Each structure stands twice: as C-alpha cells, then as structure tokens.
Fold:
Amino acid sequence: MMKDWFSKLTDEFIKTENTVLGKIFSLLDDEINQLKDTFTRIEEWRDLNNAQGKTLDFIGNDVGQKRGKTNDAVYRSLIKSKIARDRSDGTFNKVIEVLAQTLDCSPNEFQLHSADEPAAVYMTNAPIDTIYNAGLTPYTFTNIVQSTVSGGVKVQSIQMDGTFELSSLAEFEDNPGGNNGLSSTTSPSQGGTLGAYIVPDRETSVPL
Structure:
C-alpha cells in the first residue's frame, strides 16, 4: 500500500521509507492493516462455526440459547441444537436431522426406534466419540434428544457406541494379560472410548 501512496506523490518528494513522510506512511500502513485484520475477523466470526466469546454470546442471545458456564465449543453445539430444534416438527427424520446438525455428522450415525410403551422412543448406535468431539457430555446429549422429540414423547433410553468392543473368548485366552477382555477398533496409539447406556429418567436434567 505504501508504494501506491508514494506513486501518488510528485517527484519533488523523496519516495523512500527512511524519510519523515515514509515513516508517517509506515505508521498509517500498520494501523490500516490492523483495521483490515479486525474487519476480516468480524466477518469470519459472523459464521457460527468461527464465532468466539462475546460474538458467540450475541448469536446465542439472538436464538434464545443461554450460555451458562459452558465454554465456546459446548455453547456452539447448544446454539446449533437450538436453531435446529426450533425448526423441528418432532418426526423421526427431523429429530435425526437436528442431532446430525448439532454434532456436525451424518444422519446415518443415529437410529431412532419406537418403544413398546406408548409415546416413547429409544435410540441406538449414537456415536459417543462424535458427541465428545462436539464438546458435549452423554447427559447433555440425552437432554438435547429429549427436547427435540415431540412434546409428550418420552425418550426411553439411548445407547452410545464407543470404539472399544468385547473380544472373543479365544482372543482373550491367547492374550490373558491384554485389555482384560477388551479390544479396540483403533490402533494402540489412538486408544478407544467405552460406550454408554443412558436412561433419561435416572439422570439429572440439563437446562437447554
């Protein structure tokens, strides 16, 4: 930008950065670049996926989602959930769509079923690693599911699948000092995650 400024001056001026005029231009150039960076950040933070701090609070307030004591990652997921839940009609497909948007994953990662008792559903195959990656706990996710289904419909239980699975008896006998009968579908360096089985009626509710 300084070159553009110098080019607008007549040849009567010495056009180098070491002159008084050059130093003034240099200071202005720094200030303008900082302003550009600020405006760029403002534009980027209008995107929910990039917003942080107070900007994220403003987005949350606009959609009616309180932050509480959550960090930015968790709050971002709650805002996504609130936006999606406000558009939900409570049907199975819409509930699955809401949860996929909340966790930023494929709708195929969830399975929702009608329970034996009236006005009740249960979920299987919920990916616990994806839930953790979204900054949520299994209990917060459970509350999101319950708040997404139609009013009066009860979420009976939620099965969350991790990356560990039980090994066969033969594998355990071949390696009795290994993982105590647990084998991981990931490499040893990656580790794995145990699943969970949540019964909402027995858990503490999280306000959403």
About this structure: Residues 166-190, 203-207 have pLDDT under 50 and may be disordered.
